[in-house]
Design goal:
The protein is mainly beta. The chain contains 5 helices and 25 strands. The chain has helices spanning 2-27, 30-35, 378-383, 390-395, 468-484; strands spanning 42-45, 48-50, 56-67, 71-84, 93-101, 103-110, 152-159, 162-168, 171-186, 190-207, 210-228, 241-251, 268-283, 286-302, 305-321, 326-328, 333-343, 348-362, 365-374, 401-410, 413-423, 426-435, 438-447, 450-457, 460-464. The chain has a 25-stranded mixed sheet that branches. The longest helix is centred in the N-terminal third of the chain and has 26 residues, at 2-27. Residues 2-19 have low confidence and may be disordered.
Length: 485
C-alpha cells in the first residue's frame, strides 16, 4: 500500500508539473517563439491561453496564418479548445486530436504569377501580414535544401461550431455554416486535406459586393491527397483533389455576372429575381454536373438597346477541367420569355428567344456552336452591337427566325462565324467580328433568286446587289481566314 501511495503521489506530482509547465509554455511568449521561427510560412497568434489540463489547450482569439508557393490562408477563432497528443511531440509532430471552436473565419487565396494575374484578384480576401494582391516571385532564389523535414502539424478532427465566414478566392460565404474534417501540413514541404465537409445551412454567397445567392443551403466535401508543395504549383494541385459541391438558394439580382462576362463583348445582365442551384462532382480535378438559374425581370443591356423579361438557364457541364480552367458546356440551354425589346430610339416590341449550345467550351471566353429560335433577329444584332444599314435591318423583322452560328465571346471580342438565319421567305448568311471598337463583317440576304450582299468595315457600309452570291463567298472566306490570325 505504501508503494502504491508513493506511486500515486509521484503521478500527481508529475501531472501537476506537466500541467504547470504546459501552462507556462502557452501562457507566456515561449510557445510563440518555438512555433513562429518562420513567420512568413507559419504564424500563430492569440490574445490569451491556458493549459491546466495535460494535453488540452484553450485559446482566446486564436489566429493562424500560413503560405506556401501556391496559396495563402488564415483562420480566426474567438475561442478554441485544442486536445493534442503530448507523446507525438517526440516525433516532431504536433497532433491535434480535436479542435473545437465557437466560431470560425477562414480565408484562402491563390498566389498569382506576375504574367497571369486573375481579373478577380481584387476580390480575394485580405490576409494581414501578406501583400495584396498575393504574388509569387519567380526571381526569388530557392531556399537551401533542408536536411530534414519540418515539424508536422496534424489535425484529426475539427468542430467549427458556426463558421461565420468562408472566403476562398473571389467566393465569399457568410452566415450559418459548419466545417468538419482535418488536415496534415508540413509548412513549405507537404500538405494533405480531408476528408473535409462544409455544411451550408443558411448563407449568402457573394462575389465582391454583389450577392450571387441569398439564404442558400447545401454542402461541399473535399479530399486533397498528399502533395509536395515545392513541386506542385498553382492549378497543378487540382489532379490531387476529389469532392462534390451542391448549393441551392435565392437570386436577388444578376449584377454578379459582370465579374465573369466581359461587358465590352457581351450584354450587361442586371436585376432579376428568382432561384438557382448547382451540383458538381470532382474526380482528380475533373468536374461534371450542372446548374439551373430561373429569374424574372432580368435586364440585358448594350449600347444599341436592351431586353427585359424572364430568363431560364440550364447549364450542362459534362467536363470541367479545373487545372486548365476549361469548361465543356455542350447541351446547355437558354430561354427568354415575355421579353420587351427596346432600342436606342426608344421604341419597344414584344420578343422571345431560345438557344442551345450544340458544342461549346469556356476557356478564356465562350467558343460555341449555337442553335437558336427567336421572334426576330433585330434585338440580338443590337445587343451585340452589329450595325446594319436601316433597310437591311427591316428584313430581320421576320416571325419565328431560326439560326445557327459559331459564336466566340472573349475579352473585347465578339464574333459570329457561319451565321445562317431563316425566316419566312428570307435567308441570311454572315460572318462578323468586332475587336474592341473595330467591326468587320459580310452578310448575304436572299429571297428566292434575289440576293444582296452587305459589307461592314468600321463605320463604313457597302451594298453589292450584282453578283452578290459570288462576291459573298469570296469575302466570307477572306473574313474567316482573317479571324484565324
Amino acid at each position: 500500500m505504501k508503494k502504491l501511495a508513493i506511486l500515486a503521489a509521484a503521478a500527481v506530482l508529475l501531472a501537476a508539473a506537466l500541467s504547470v509547465g504546459q501552462h507556462l509554455l502557452v501562457s507566456g511568449p515561449r510557445l510563440r517563439e518555438l512555433v513562429n521561427t518562420k513567420p512568413e510560412e507559419l504564424l500563430v497568434e492569440y490574445d490569451r491561453a491556458t493549459a491546466w489540463v495535460p494535453g488540452t489547450l484553450r485559446f482566446t482569439n486564436l489566429r493562424v496564418r500560413s503560405r506556401d508557393p501556391n496559396v495563402e490562408w488564415e483562420f480566426r477563432m474567438p475561442s478554441a479548445r485544442l486536445d493534442y497528443a503530448p507523446l507525438a511531440l517526440l516525433s516532431r509532430t504536433f497532433r491535434v486530436r480535436r479542435l473545437v471552436a465557437s466560431e470560425l473565419v477562414f480565408h484562402l487565396r491563390e498566389r498569382q504569377h506576375p504574367d497571369r494575374v486573375s481579373r478577380n484578384a481584387p476580390l480575394f480576401p485580405r490576409i494581414e501580414g501578406y501583400a495584396d494582391p498575393p504574388m509569387r516571385d519567380p526571381s526569388e532564389p530557392p531556399h537551401p535544401p533542408r536536411t530534414s523535414p519540418p515539424w508536422t502539424i496534424r489535425l484529426d478532427a475539427l468542430d467549427s461550431g458556426a463558421a461565420r465566414e468562408i472566403w476562398i478566392g473571389p467566393w465569399r460565404y457568410q452566415g450559418d455554416a459548419h466545417v468538419s474534417g482535418g488536415f496534415t501540413l508540413q509548412p513549405g514541404w507537404r500538405a494533405e486535406v480531408g476528408p473535409a465537409t462544409i455544411e451550408l445551412r443558411k448563407v449568402d454567397l457573394r462575389v465582391g459586393e454583389d450577392t450571387v445567392l441569398s439564404g442558400a443551403h447545401g454542402a461541399a466535401h473535399c479530399t486533397i491527397r498528399s502533395f509536395d508543395v515545392r513541386q506542385v504549383k498553382g492549378g497543378e494541385v487540382w489532379p490531387y483533389i476529389d469532392g462534390d459541391f451542391a448549393l441551392d438558394g435565392a437570386v436577388e439580382a444578376l449584377e454578379f455576372f459582370r465579374h465573369f462576362l466581359d461587358e465590352r463583348s457581351a450584354p450587361a445582365l442586371r436585376k432579376g429575381r428568382g432561384a438557382a442551384k448547382v451540383q458538381i462532382k470532382i474526380e482528380r480535378g475533373i468536374g461534371h454536373g450542372g446548374a439551373t438559374l430561373e429569374a424574372a425581370g432580368v435586364e440585358a443591356k448594350a449600347a444599341g438597346g436592351g431586353l427585359r423579361g424572364d430568363l431560364t438557364l440550364r447549364a450542362q457541364l459534362p467536363r470541367w477541367d479545373f487545372e486548365k480552367s476549361e469548361m465543356d458546356v455542350a447541351g446547355s440551354r437558354l430561354e427568354l420569355r415575355d421579353v420587351t425589346a427596346s432600342t436606342r430610339g426608344g421604341s419597344e416590341t414584344r420578343w422571345w428567344g431560345r438557344a442551345r449550345i450544340a458544342q461549346g467550351r469556356i476557356h478564356g471566353g465562350l467558343d460555341a456552336r449555337v442553335e437558336a429560335e427567336c421572334r426576330d433577329a433585330r434585338p440580338l444584332y443590337r445587343l451585340f452591337s452589329v450595325k446594319l444599314p436601316g433597310w437591311a435591318e427591316q428584313m430581320l423583322d421576320l416571325e419565328d427566325l431560326r439560326a445557327t452560328a459559331h459564336l466566340r465571346l472573349a475579352s473585347a471580342l465578339t464574333a459570329f462565324e457561319g451565321l445562317s438565319v431563316t425566316g419566312g421567305e428570307y435567308r441570311i448568311s454572315g460572318e462578323f467580328e468586332k475587336v474592341r471598337d473595330r467591326a468587320r463583317g459580310v452578310f448575304l440576304v436572299e429571297k428566292g433568286k434575289l440576293a444582296v450582299a452587305v459589307q461592314i468595315d468600321g463605320e463604313n457600309h457597302s451594298v453589292r446587289p450584282l453578283g452578290a452570291r459570288e462576291w459573298y463567298q469570296a469575302a466570307a472566306a477572306e473574313q474567316r481566314e482573317r479571324a484565324k490570325k
